[in-house]
Amino acid sequence: MKKVILFLFLLLAAIGIDYEINSIGLVNLSNENELFLLVAILLLSIYIIPASWLLFRYKNYFAISVYVLSISLFFGCFIPGWVAAYGNEAAKPIIDSVAHESSSLNAWISALTAPLVEETVKGACAVGLIYLLKKQRLSEVFFIGVCVGLGFQILEDISYIVNQAGDSMKEIFPQTLLRISGAISSHWAYTGLFVLGLFCLIHKNSGIPAKKGYLWLLSPIGLHFLWNSPLNEWTIGDLSLISAILTAITLLLIIQVIQYLAQHEVIHEKSE
């Protein structure tokens, strides 16, 4: 069974590498605009470098292998992105049939479709890695989810920037800054929470109350939905209040998880 899953992962990753690289190469730009595109993509390091540093710090704290994090990040980059893209595309006819000509209803249903498809695909990728790597500790489960989500997030941000370059170079840097500002509480957090919640509910001997497991499992879908919904377009002057509230809630949940793991898992290991 593990050989089959490993083969499937390698196959999907090989397809993903070809898909992601070709999508960048297909953009027809002048040499000057190609340089602007490269600079815009490199600007993503504003959040990628601090995120990598934090992963390294917590890797040491929770005694998680670099190999585990690297493998999770790699497959997170090249599997869930393109699979979710096809899933979202397949859902469009269903949305149109339900919403008919109502643009308002279409916007709300579309906002729900992406979270359901993307969280499921990312979660399946992380669960498969947990199975292949034979990991049982909650900290390892959580950080595998975080790395899969971070890989998905990085490639999604690059995809948005490339697509923007193909549409209009005037908006490429505003789009890049928008992706950077949203990165603080994006897919890395959603997938980490989702996978941890799912793992705790499946493994009832994990020691985590069911209520907490359901909170971690369902909150990423709800937060992702609200972020994509028309509600997030509401502002007070120049302040995006809804996105700020959603970011604060997401980070609060992440802090809750880190504190729980630090208090229970690390202390337990030290006592042993």
Q: What is the N-to-C order of secondary-structure elements (H for helix, E for strand)?
A: HHHHHHHHHHH
C-alpha termini separation: 34 Å
Q: Quick one: overall form?
A: globular
If helices are DSSP runs of H or I spanning 4 or more residues, what is the number of helices? 11
Helix fraction?
A: over 70%
Overall pLDDT: 91
Question: Residue ranges: pLDDT <50 for 5 or more in a row?
Answer: none
Q: What's the domain count? A: 1
Strand proportion, as a percent range, falls in under 5%
Number of strands: 0
Notes on the protein architecture:
By secondary structure, the protein is mostly helical. The protein has one domain. The chain is 82% helix and 0% strand. The protein has helices at residues 2-25, 31-42, 45-61, 66-78, 80-99, 103-133, 138-167, 172-182, 187-202, 210-228, 241-271. α1 (2-25) crosses α4, α2 (31-42) runs antiparallel to α7 (138-167) and α6 crosses α7 (138-167). It is globular and about 55 Å long. It starts with a helix and ends with a helix. The relative contact order is 0.12. The model has no long low-confidence stretch (mean pLDDT 91). It comes from Candidatus Enterococcus wittei. GO terms for molecular function: peptidase activity. This is PrsW family intramembrane metalloprotease. The chain crosses the membrane at residues 35-56, 63-87, 140-162, 182-201, 213-229, 241-262.
Short characterization:
The chain crosses the membrane at residues 35-56, 63-87, 140-162, 182-201, 213-229, 241-262. The chain contains eleven helices and no strands.
